[in-house]
Design a protein that fits this description.
Elements lengths: L8 E2 L4 E2 L12 H27 L9 H4 E5 L6 H11 L3 E7 L6 H8 L6 E7 L2 H5 L1 H15 L5 E4 L13 H14 L7 E8 L3 H8 L9 E5 L18 H14 L7 E3 L25 H18 L4 E4 L10 E2 L6 E2 L1 H10 L12
Parallel strand pairs: 3-4, 3-10, 4-5, 5-6, 6-7, 7-8, 8-9, 9-10
Antiparallel strand pairs: 1-2, 11-12
Helix pairs in contact: 1-8, 1-9, 4-6, 6-7, 8-9, 10-11
């Protein structure tokens, strides 16, 4: 929705630009202390986590497809009407909307956007920046304004995004935990509002555990993970020789069971596969080693949703996002909207295909 993005924001891939080596925080006492806390938490909780990991069994999910399958949408006056039509065509009812704190003065426009989708359930993703860490008072004011404007239309608010990536503003997990504490204080004025976090991107279980087990003062009503299993590989592929998608979800669920800052509810709030030859829209180089072709993207989409659903450990999964040539369901280049094969795969999943067994076609 932004008329002019901040200088550090890439409007093509919808994320901050990669930090230069000089801008990254590589040392210093706070960072070292945080690493030691992460290590201590991991060592102290490892026996309990492993016990629950090995004892965890898949369970039947009773969630309907339209409550399980979610999709991220973004305001764009060029395509707002077409987006509404496609949302209805797909049959999706769970929508995610990013609201940047640096656009807080336009939050009423976001509220009006949500109202364009009566009957849909929105998860509001509040985006942080480095300013959120540097100015705690301003962070609280921004949250209060976002909560006030959007809580009449949405109950769930994800606090932060990709919090384990320094380009998003947090140099380490401790800085994000302080943002969560502030969010807990602000939400006291909104008794029906639910907090979602910890918004760790990719598979970094030590950081995830740190956000779930600590002495900070907050409570997550839902645990969120931006779980990209592999930028070019199948959900059946194994990281470290062990962790395919199913086992990654198993480990996150085991960590949730020992957490003292969270309810035992898990949502995957971001996943996709970037497409070959779509630079600058891909969040990487677009090289064949880190991207997939369109049919493969569609196949992996179906595998991911089916695996996550059939474990019974996940309540919702959101694809990021509807319109983007590099990783979305629709390509808008050239001023026309071309549906990728993944668009039709998504529609298949939400209209009955979710319940079919996932098939490894590698």
């Amino acid at each position: 929705m932004s008329e002019k993005s901040p200088s550090w924001w890439d409007p093509y891939s919808n994320q901050p630009y990669k930090l230069s080596a000089e801008d990254k925080t590589r040392s210093g006492r706070p960072l070292i202390q945080e690493y030691l806390k992460i290590l201590a938490t991991a060592l102290g909780m490892a026996p309990a986590v492993l016990w629950r990991y090995w004892g965890l069994r898949a369970r039947s999910s009773r969630t309907e497809a339209r409550s399980f399958v979610g999709l991220s949408v973004s305001p764009d006056t060029r395509y707002d009407a077409q987006v509404q039509e496609m949302v209805e065509d797909l049959g999706v009812e769970e929508l995610l909307l990013r609201v940047p704190t640096w656009e807080v003065d336009r939050v009423d426009e976001y509220a009006r956007y949500v109202q364009r989708y009566p009957g849909k359930r929105f998860l509001i993703n509040v985006l942080q920046s480095r300013d959120s860490v540097h100015d705690p008072l301003r962070w609280r004011e921004q949250l209060a304004k976002i909560f006030s404007s959007l809580s009449p239309f949405a109950s769930y608010f994800q606090i932060g995004n990709a919090v384990n990536r320094s380009k998003w503003g947090c140099a380490h997990a401790g800085e994000y935990l302080r943002l969560l504490e502030a969010a807990e204080e602000v939400r006291a004025g909104f008794p029906h509002l639910k907090l979602v976090g910890s918004s760790v991107i990719d598979f970094e279980p030590l950081v995830t555990l740190r956000t779930l087990r600590n002495r900070y003062r907050y409570h997550l009503d839902v645990v969120s993970s931006l779980l990209y299993v592999n930028r070019r590989g199948s959900p059946f592929g194994r990281q470290f020789g062990v962790f395919d998608l199913r086992n990654k979800l198993r480990l996150i669920h085991a960590m949730m069971s020992v957490g003292n800052r969270n309810a035992r509810r898990l949502w995957i709030t971001e996943m996709n596969w970037p497409l070959l030859h779509t630079k600058p829209y891909t969040p990487n180089s677009g090289h064949p080693r880190s991207t997939v072709d369109e049919p493969t993207q569609a196949e992996y989409l179906k595998q991911y949703f089916r695996i996550a659903y059939q474990t019974g450990w996940v309540e919702k999964v959101y694809w990021w996002q509807l319109i983007n040539p590099g990783y979305g369901l629709v390509d808008h280049r050239g001023g026309t909207l071309r549906r990728h094969p993944a668009y039709f795969a998504f529609k298949e999943i939400i209209n009955g295909g979710l319940y079919e067994p996932p098939v490894d076609r590698r």
